[in-house]
Amino acid sequence: TVNSLQLGSFDHPLSESIVLSNGTLLLEPVLPNIGLKYLDLGGLFNQTIYPGVLPQTLTSLKLSNYFNQHLIVGSLPDGIKHLKMGILFNKKLIKGVLPSKLEHLELSIHYNQPIDENGILPSGLKVLVFDLFSQYDHPIEAGVFPDSLTDLKLGQDFNQSLENLPKSIKKLTICEYLDQDYFPTIPESVEDLRLFEFSDNSVLDEEWHSGLDALKSLEISERQTLLSIPSSITRLKGFTILEESNQSYRDQLSLLHSITNLKELSVFIPHHKTLQEFEIPKQIEFLKFEALSSQLFTRTLQHCYQLHTLIFSFEYKMPILPNSLPDSLTTLVLSPNQNIPFEKDALPSGLKNLSIKGYDIPLESSHFSQSIKLLEFGYDCTQTLTENNLPPEIETLIIWGFKTKIQLPLPKTLKTIYLFSGNQTILENIELFNTLLPVIRVLNSNLLSKIFDKQCK
């Protein structure tokens, strides 16, 4: 039984015409009709889909970027829960054409047909996504978007009122309106708000979040200025410390420190800005420097006794100084551009998970905290990993490098090695590979990219 099928350069009818002896015309499906749940019609498919042709067992369907045919009522199996349209699709959706059990619908860049009747969108739809660069810009009529909808993403061309959105909306993504002085009224039910594609001079005043008492997560554009942030926020992404803005530097810091419930923070620090007078709020548990090239000083994190995860951006190339990281830290991700040796005792004694993707200098086990259990090396690593230069209590290794080598013996605590499938240095060493067979897992880049975060949870 085939559960998943992905077609490549396929552009043929999904059925064959058969004429019976009595003149009856039958359409014989060409796809397996037993057990198939996921179907990706590739990159070129642009044929009419007739009723009864697609397997009734489908739960997920992805149409090709070239597909731009009218959908016929009954052509999409009723059990489909996830449907993704391709780039060129721009045909009006009519009542009954979408599967009644559909929960997730994605419409791409060129879709710009009005969704203006009750019943076009299934009553159980939970997620509706318009591409970030979508051309869709039509009024939202009352009752057209179902009350089941919890997640809505609107593209950069959308410039309509949001007053008719259902009260069920929890997650909302919008872009800047053409009239930069206008900010739409956000439904009070929204808990996660993402403001994308806002211009450098965009300013949201103290009233923009009036009534948004349920708001917990906020993501903003890199150079967007907020004069006020709801105190209910626990997650903030995109906050930028600007010297040339509508707020003074100290006002911005004061605003950041005023969000007393904030636990997760992603912050941009301009290249020219020193961190000597910058202190991260003490209650932060997760911190990511999206842009940072100046030295991280002891003062920056000195009061962050609850910080457990710290991620550095691509720009950070400075050394990690002793006592600059709090002892509470358990996960550290260094910049891929950082290739500077750790100073002695620079890493916290309780650190468990470490990603050093840009590191390619001679290693010693003394470089690492003894507490480290998970260690990730990047593409640039050409070192030979062995017992003498790995943490003594290491349990999991993630190796991205094409030329990273392994030499026995390895620490006895090592349970799993996740290896990039492009590392022929290890894969072609048959004797070594057979020895490591009980612990080694060979993965492609897509699967390997998910391992570190998954292991950290």
Automatic annotation (TrEMBL):
The keyword Repeat applies. It comes from Dictyostelium purpureum (Slime mold). This is Uncharacterized protein. PANTHER family: FNIP REPEAT-CONTAINING PROTEIN, FNIP REPEAT-CONTAINING PROTEIN-RELATED. Signal peptide: none annotated. The keyword Repeat applies. It comes from the Eukaryota. Pfam families: FNIP. Keywords: Repeat. InterPro entries: FNIP, LRR_dom_sf, STK_FNIP-Repeat.
